[in-house]
Amino acid sequence: MKERPSFPARVKGLGEQPKPRPAVAGIEQPQGIGLDSGAVRQRMVEKLAALGIRDAGVLAAMASVERHRFVDSALANQGYEDTSLPIGLGQTISKPSVVARMAELLRNGSAAKMGRVLEIGTGCGYQAAVLSQLASEVYSIERLRGLHDKARANLRTLFLPNVHLLFGDGMLGFPTGAPYAGIIAAAGGEAIPPAWIEQLALGGRLVAPVSGTASGQASAEQVLMVVDKTAQGLRHTVLEAVHFVPLKSGFV
Ligand code: SAH
Prior knowledge:
- With 252 residues, the protein is α/β, with parallel strands linked by helices.
- The protein has a domain at 84-241: Rossmann fold (3-Layer(aba) Sandwich), CATH 3.40.50.150.
- Helices cover 24% and strands 27% of the residues.
- It has helices at residues 37-50, 56-64, 96-107, 126-132, 145-156, 194-199, and strands at 85-88, 91-93, 114-120, 135-142, 163-167, 180-185, 187-188, 200-211, 222-230, 233-241, 245-246.
- The strands form three sheets. The protein has a seven-stranded mixed sheet with strand order 5-4-3-6-8-9-10.
- Strand 9 and strand 10 (233-241) form a beta hairpin.
- Helix 1 packs antiparallel against helix 2.
- The longest helix has 14 residues, at 37-50.
- The two termini are 16 Å apart.
- The relative contact order is 0.13.
- The site of S-adenosyl-L-homocysteine has 25 residues, from strand 2, helix 4 and strand 4.
């Protein structure tokens, strides 16, 4: 069941190509982002810091992963705006500020690299790439085959051997990689699936959007929920309102 990203041997000649290197083999550098996307990304990181992201490891990861390569080339020039963007099949890549916020919550103030992390909702693979900088292993599961394949293509040229892409129903977690130091969901349901709690290590932390009624809020609004698994039991913390795509069961 464990599928590792199948990084093919470099296509002859591609590895030696002069800059700009292609986002995905065969696709040219998108127009509109300029040759130095690093400067644009640095501005995005400054904005993230201004929004309150403090974790230097998270900011460094956000500075290093080229978000514009994970979206359609027609949207690449919006790649560093703080907005979610369509990635196909009715799904979206999360806003950079939300990715950074959730990663910061997951790390919980520790500067050390996390152990194994499970991500539910690979989408285009962007958040998995960010997490790969912060955790020893990232298991990322997606229920839509088309997006699972897209993430695989997006990540191929990045050569991230610690990212493991899985196709299946993330509501069941991924027991083979458990226990996880961190679990992060990019899709929100009405409750936290029991499998996630089971697969969370003692001392581990889960960050997920949950619809408000389940989180004890009066409204049905989605909120960010943090669950800490401690020796004394589970500790739930309800945070700000968020807008994630729905968590759905099964896979297609
Ligand atoms: N982290 C992603 C965000 C993708 S949007 C990125 O960086 O692009 C959330 C994703 O969750 C969607 O692709 C959706 O198909 C997926 N999803 C929803 N329910 C799921 C489930 N039960 N298991 C796995 N993936 C699921």
